[in-house]
Design goal:
234 residues, alpha+beta, Umud Fragment, subunit A, 5 helices
Length: 234
């Protein structure tokens, strides 16, 4: 019988081991966004991630999988959860967006395993006013390449269902020279007929990055940021 990975059982196993998701992320060195994105996958395919789960949680990966007819959109059947006495944390996405990872304004970094959000997270930010996006999420900025508008440590709200426009701030997911799926946070500059996309840092000490449009996988517009006061870009 076909089985699917159960994010709820993963969380319950963390709980049984007296661990939080942040503890697992620190111990495994798996990107935070990837771990939270597991809520929306049917199976984890990366053998390094599977080995980390088994090593840290002292279980076999198969123990975190349930028959496909017992899951709906990655969630384990409610009756089964009652039997293991675990209730996943709920939140109102219209009021809060989960902080699912970090983003760099400078170097390319390994990006999220899937692009469907939201997952859940231990930290959240206020949902952007006037933006209705069921897949919206937040990221924490690392580095100073997008300062002073986006200083190191600030949070940005990303709306996958918002149409990007030239000059907008965005997280750009691309196929890099090494063939990896990676991302960075920049201001995007382009024209309709151009075959390239210019990625600009706001800090003048960083040079523009010019990338072929054919290498772009996805552009995720930034619709708000949270430093000390909230700023809106819609």
């Amino acid at each position: 019988m076909k089985k699917n990975f159960s994010y709820d059982l993963f969380l319950k196993t963390l709980f049984d081991n007296k661990l939080k998701a942040s503890d697992f992320i620190e111990m495994s060195k798996i990107p935070q966004a990837t771990v939270y994105a597991w809520k929306n996958v049917k199976n984890i395919k990366n053998p390094v991630y599977i080995a980390a789960i088994e090593r840290i949680l002292h279980v076999k990966y198969e123990d975190l999988c349930v028959p496909s007819d017992e899951t709906v959109d990655g969630k384990t059947n409610v009756k089964r959860l009652d039997k293991i006495h675990y209730e996943p944390q709920e939140y109102d996405h219209e009021k809060e967006w989960p902080i699912v990872g970090k983003t760099h304004g400078g170097p390319w970094v390994e990006t999220i395993e899937v692009s469907e959000y939201p997952g859940d997270a231990e930290e959240r930010v206020q949902a952007p006013e006037g933006v209705k996006d069921p897949n919206g999420f937040a990221l924490q900025v690392e580095g100073d390449s997008m300062a002073p508008e986006f200083p190191d440590g600030c949070k940005i709200c990303v709306s996958p269902n918002t149409q990007p426009a030239p000059g907008q701030y965005a997280v750009v997911i691309a196929k890099t020279r090494m063939g990896n799926r990676e991302s960075c946070f920049k201001q995007i500059l382009y024209t309709e007929n151009s075959k390239t996309l210019t990625l600009r840092s706001l800090n003048p000490k960083y040079q523009d990055i010019v990338i072929p449009k054919s290498d772009i996988i996805r552009i995720l517009p930034v619709v708000a940021s949270e430093v000390v006061t909230r700023r809106s870009y819609v």
